[in-house]
Amino acid sequence: MTQENEFIAVLRAARDQAVHQRRSVIKALSGPYERGETERMRELLPGISHTISLIDAAIQDEKRIAAGEPIPATIGTVSVPGLPGLDDT
Description:
Blueprint: H1 3-30, H2 37-66
Helix pairs in contact: 1-2
């Protein structure tokens, strides 16, 4: 297995975990309302969904790297609640 394929495998495993987390949150939201817990689940869902999108983009970047294609430049910044930025120490 090439190094690029190893990175893709790691990203896919991370994506699978995030999808599992998202499904768990959605399952919790489909149940009866529980004050505090329902709000917490609602707050978690966008971050998990955004993480999945970021992982999908990273997988595409790794595929481009493996194919020797240039990676498009990122414009702007992305912040995910609860995750530190690159400049955070």
